[in-house]
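Task card 7
Instruction: Convert sequence to structure tokens.
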Amino acid sequence: MNSAAPRPSVLFVCVHNAGRSQMGAAFLTHLAGDRIEVRSAGSAPAYAVNPAVVEAMAELGIDISAETPKILTTEAVQSSDVVITMGCGDTCPVFPGKRYLDWQLDDPAGQGVDAVRPIRDQIERRVRGLLAELGVPAASA
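Output:
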């Protein structure tokens, strides 16, 4: 394997970039380290990450309290190999040659941590599956 090969890049997108996409990006960063370039964005970003999402991730030892929602840009999509949408509908720009995955997940907005945990766990399973598809071994948690 060529050590100079570019690392794959993954972009997680949801409407507010305050819950699902933040969890997806955090899990991928946690499990892949610097072997994958990870981004997240929202089509209509919130002011802050959902506190119940921060709490649910902290339960697994992943601190996302310093993350801030970011606006989805055309450049972010163009520079990503895989774009994972999580309920952003038609607002995500589509470019030929990109791999798109649409993960149907409940929206944690306005939910307490008890409702966020199953969403978090679904996202972790899907991220682990994505790592396997990309041929990147997950770091041991």
